[in-house]
From TrEMBL, chain A:
This is Hydrogenase assembly chaperone HypC. InterPro entries: Hydgase_assmbl_chp_CS, Hydrogenase_HupF/HypC. Coiled coil: none annotated. Pfam families: HupF_HypC. One of its GO terms (biological process) is protein maturation. Belongs to the HupF/HypC family. It comes from the Bacteria. One of its GO terms (molecular function) is carbon dioxide binding.
UniProtKB/TrEMBL annotation, chain B:
Belongs to the HypD family. GO terms for biological process: protein maturation. GO terms for molecular function: 4 iron, 4 sulfur cluster binding; carbon monoxide binding; iron ion binding. This is Hydrogenase maturation factor. It comes from the Bacteria. Keywords: Iron, Metal-binding. The keyword Transcription regulation does not apply. It holds the Pfam family HypD.
Length: 75, 378
């Protein structure tokens, strides 16, 4: 339950961002990111629908490789 | 395994790791995500025999008090409400007579309106879509999950939404283990996403007060191995400091806005952990200004004080020992025999973050020999 997933911001409206990862898009709350300047195309780590931290594109990539392995192992 | 993970492994193998007393060096992790990565990547087998990796209190579902789950089940069955909860909670069993609902899932089958959600924002949508109905959000989780619940409250929630809060803080469980005098570990891997939110400083007490090496890790094998290497070197050199092996996400001070939401909407109180008991200052309760959204105030209480004593793990289930790192999952006598993910006996086999479930997913299917169990308990 404490595992965050990296997603890319596609659009922002107030405190809600439309984010995408692996072709899936979701509304993500930015209400915990008020200290951070966020823009379209930035990557954030999302946990239970809330962005918890900004992350670089390269980091997002590394994290996804790991999750892919875990998901594959699980199925 | 990536090249850099292999390099870290080689570095660890090159360390002089033999302890004078011949006992292995135990490194504890306190995060289900860490345990999952370690197990799936096969790090236990890859590391030298002198190192043991111990899964510790890293599963919020596993330690969610039995009386809280019982209360959620009773509320959903007896009140005209919609109960929403993170999906993991739906299959966690409580100890009741055979004919009664043992889980939220069974209560749902008996007609209660119970819906799994993946985010607090879904609780808001459900409350908005059902303005004439009371919606209760049974919110269990550690800081990473409780902070979004706090953010949801701070942003404002519909009147018909209330919270049955069962949030817990991670570090007090580790403090309790360390204060007990028999912590059962020589080094600590501190949780990555809890530290992202709360700041790595929360874990300073491990090195400062207890002289136990610690490092915050991310979820890749390289980050975990780097953290292990760091704590092992600290141990060898007799020089402890809190290392941060997840700087990509974990920054000094953590996420200030998340912490502000927690501070505004919640208070830290002593709290019960299933099978473990009360741990001081380890739980969240809604702050005065948000009490009107407290399900425990809004509805007649179904909490039954007798359960607080009885609220242990199911008979024969060693989950409490597993959570505290006193036993490995397969050392429970029911592991892989009576208890499997399809028919879980205890919460550690239900949750994706439960060590029993993780070990099972990784292909460990047989219970360990009785002697091994005794040895670990000794
Ligand atoms: S294997 Fe099942 S019964 Fe045993 S500790 Fe784990 S959850 Fe409990």
């Amino acid at each position: 339950m404490c595992l965050g997933i990296p997603m890319q911001i596609k659009s922002i409206e107030n405190y809600t961002a439309r984010c995408e990862a692996k072709g899936v898009s979701r509304d993500v709350s930015l209400f915990m990111m008020q200290e951070e300047e966020l823009n379209v195309d930035d990557f954030v780590v999302v946990h239970v629908g809330y962005a918890i931290q900004k992350i670089s594109e390269q980091e997002a990539q590394t994290a996804w490789e790991l999750y892919d392995q875990m998901l594959a192992a699980d199925s | 395994m990536s090249a850099s993970a292999k390099t870290w492994l080689e570095r660890i193998r090159a360390l002089p790791l033999d302890k004078a007393d011949g006992r292995p060096i135990k490194i504890m992790n306190v995060c289900g995500g860490h345990e999952r990565s370690i197990t799936m990547a096969g790090l236990r087998k890859a590391l030298p025999d002198t190192i043991e990796l111990v899964p510790g209190p890293g599963c919020p579902v596993c330690i969610c008090p039995e009386e809280d789950i019982f209360e959620a089940i009773q509320l959903a069955l007896h009140e005209e409400i919609i109960l929403v909860a993170f999906g993991d909670m739906l299959r966690v069993p409580v100890n009741v007579a055979k004919a009664e609902a043992r889980t939220l899932e069974q209560a749902k089958a008996q007609g209660a309106d119970i819906r799994p959600i993946a985010s607090p924002t879904e609780a808001i949508s459900i409350a908005r879509d059902n303005p004439g109905t009371q919606v209760v959000f049974f919110a269990a989780g550690f800081e990473t999950t409780t902070a979004p619940v706090a953010a949801m409250l701070a942003e404002g929630v519909p009147d018909n939404l209330s919270i049955l809060l069962s949030g817990r803080l991670t570090w007090p469980a580790v403090a309790m283990l360390l204060d007990s005098g028999t912590p059962g570990f020589d080094a600590l891997i501190a949780p990555g996403h809890v530290s992202t939110v709360m700041g790595p400083e929360e874990w300073e007490f491990v090195v400062k007060d207890h002289k136990i090496p610690a490092a915050v890790a991310g979820f890749t094998p390289e980050s975990l191995l780097a953290a292990m290497y760091s704590t092992l070197r600290q141990l060898i050199e007799g020089r402890c400091f809190l290392d941060n092996c997840y700087p990509q996400l974990v920054r000094a001070g953590g996420n200030k806005s998340a912490q502000a939401h927690l501070a505004t909407t919640m208070q830290v109180v002593d709290a019960n952990w299933r099978g473990i008991g009360i741990i001081p200052a380890s739980g969240y309760q809604l702050a005065e200004a948000y009490r009107s959204h407290d399900a425990r105030e809004r509805f007649p209480t179904y909490a039954d004080d007798a359960r607080k004593r009885a609220g242990e793990m199911p008979p024969g289930c060693d989950c409490a020992q597993v959570v505290l790192g006193k036993l490995y999952p397969n050392q429970c006598r029911l592991f892989g025999t009576a208890c499997k993910p399809r028919n879980p006996i205890g919460p550690c086999m239900v949750s994706d973050e439960g060590a029993c479930r993780i070990w099972w997913s990784a292909g460990i299917r047989e219970p360990a020999a009785q002697e091994e169990r005794e040895e670990t308990l000794a």
